[in-house]
Amino acid sequence: MHFPALADTAHAASPAFAVALDNVGMQHIDLILTLSDLPQHPLAVKADVSVNLPQPDKKGIHMSRLYQHLYQWVQVQSVSPATLHDLLTILLQSQQECASASASLHLSAQLLLRRPALKTPALAGFKAYPLTISATLINNELNIELSVVIGYSSTCPCSASLSRQLLSEQFQQQFAGQPVVDTALASQWLLQHASLATPHSQRSTAQLRIKLNPAQHDFGILPLIDRAEQALATPLQTAVKRADEQEFARLNGANLMFVEDAARRLHAALSQHYDAFSIAVAHHESLHPHDAVANVTFAANSNG
């Protein structure tokens, strides 16, 4: 059956205003793909893809070509820093009539990882880590950035100090005048009264942005998450029993953190492994109706 040729308005017409555009493309494309870090773990992502339109007299790009090439490519390729250059090159080649010289791809997903309980053998659950991968190819130079959001718990050092002070005062009142305090009585008193004032803690988040080497063969997602959680020492938990909850409380007590402390811990941990990164930390306060935040950037060739 013969179909008549359909008009290509984007290329047959001229724009009403002749202006070059920095980016033209699509956002929130639904895709399933695999990352080189997790080849057996298909990931549902939202993809943003675009190219520049440098010719002012061009009405528009071949939008559908971007979608088709992206969709077809992820069916047969695992996404890695090393393969992103090929993908973005293909996207640019699909827009030769537009003389596009830059292409960008942004992938966002919720990475689900199985995380074990702190103490109970075989007890585990899935925890989501918001993940983004951004890649831009400009004049054949590729820049890649990985972003991961880490959830953890933070206990305020000031609040803990005030709670200990109140406990100490109550203890002195209870055993005042006794030259020797019976340890059994003191232990029993602490079991009943040690929580008469509790320090405030809150769920907290750290967003880590890492600049990657385009030549590397994976994104290093799992090592980044592990380094961050080890540095903070109080990662959020999934399934727990009482022993796990008690260990979580112990870790919070042993790792009191202002938001400044959390940012500095992460900086110290990441600067040993990455040449450039930024950290944005937020403690979602339980004492206040606002958040406490801290930010820090690092580049190995600077004094920052």
UniProtKB/TrEMBL annotation:
The biological processes this protein is annotated with in GO are:
tetrahydrofolate biosynthetic process
Keywords of the record: Hydrolase
Q: Where are the transmembrane segments?
A: none
Question: A Gene Ontology molecular-function term?
Answer: GTP cyclohydrolase I activity
Leading EC class = hydrolase
Keyword Mitochondrion among UniProt keywords:
no
Output the Pfam families linked to this UniProt entry.
GCHY-1
Q: Where is this site: May be catalytically important?
A: 156
Q: What is its EC number?
A: 3.5.4.16
Record family assignment: Belongs to the GTP cyclohydrolase IV family.
| Role noted for this protein | Converts GTP to 7,8-dihydroneopterin triphosphate.
**Stated name of the protein:** GTP cyclohydrolase FolE2
